[in-house]
Fold:
Amino acid sequence: MAEESQRDAVVLVSGGLDSATTLAIARDGGYRCHAMSFDYGQRHRFELEASRRVAESLGAVEHRVVTIDLSAAGGFGRNALTDEIAVPKDRSAETMADGIPPTYVPARNTMFLSFALGYAEVIGAFDIFIGVNAVDYSGYPDCRPPFIQCFERLANLATAAGAEGRGMFHIHAPLISMRKGQIIRTGTDLGVDYGMTHSCYDPDGHGRACGHCDACALRLGGFRDVGLTDPAAYVDAAEG
Amino acid sequence: MAEESQRDAVVLVSGGLDSATTLAIARDGGYRCHAMSFDYGQRHRFELEASRRVAESLGAVEHRVVTIDLSAAGGFGRNALTDEIAVPKDRSAETMADGIPPTYVPARNTMFLSFALGYAEVIGAFDIFIGVNAVDYSGYPDCRPPFIQCFERLANLATAAGAEGRGMFHIHAPLISMRKGQIIRTGTDLGVDYGMTHSCYDPDGHGRACGHCDACALRLGGFRDVGLTDPAAYVDAAEG
Structure:
């Protein structure tokens, strides 16, 4: 695709499997991708390193990391992703689908999309990509289609670019109704190296995945479903 | 009002006239107010000192300051509130009402409300107060009623508390259809000391207001309309 015909997009990149696939899809759709990540004191900081590798390897034109210091706001409550609360392990798919897990961070996707929106407006982009998934979604309310649709409406009301009719913001959630296996198949076809991605909620000191938290369970199940081997490093080498 | 019958509310407090009045209204409505402010590299940092004074004097149960470092994201573009761009001066009411001024910060209220929402969910509050005003609103898109209504809908979709039906989030914007004079009259009746508040976009090194930017013009006009004297310090002492 010719350089001048490309549109800019802001792509939220956590360094995980879903957001890496989303970035690959956005690039494949012809967008010049501006990757954005957040340093918000998450316990699994290997995510941030993974996000840098993912952004670079998938041709993002830049990678912006926004630092949010919530310590003065009590770290926004205790949850298993920012605090020393036990990450649940070896939960069945039924248990995962039933209710909101302790890894839920209040209003996280609302905050992340707000920053993506502000940055999009600054660079003149109207397309924002987020790798939320409502199927194998582990119970987060801000991963569902009505949330995404409502944020899209908000984006057009909230901004000068929207209010002045310079364009229509579109929140792309290309994975929202895919199963994990489909996501992995799609990304593999688009050349994503999943060995670069980090999904585990509870990695060891070398960044190796635990293989037992919800994120690992969903990921390993997805690779199994499509008959592929997860190239990521696991504490127990037999996992991948 | 008895302590146990009070509900918690998160109140966005910038240190300006509008948010001080909003905090007074929330307190008068019987809420236990959790004040929240942001340090986002704004040029007029006297706001943050003012927010502390305002929160304390109006009986907030706490004051949380969230730090957002946007430097890695290009400071979210250049605008007259965070950069060395000239703040417009001595604009007529007609000019102010016509279009979005250079003091607009992309998606600012969306970001601020997102943090208020996250904190509200953590403390179990369902009420969020913001001092936006759509009448003398200086042209910001994210100060209009449809934006507030849409964010309220989003809040109930975005959160575990909303998704699980533990309560309904309500975004209160009590000033939204008031003229500046009405706001000042309301706050004065509720005991707000406007000498503590800071509105100017371009104060001098001592925090004294310029008297000529849009914020000063609206504020001074409001005091004139209700026949009161602005107790704030101005560079030209004749202003207030």
Observations:
- The radius of gyration of chain B is 17 Å.
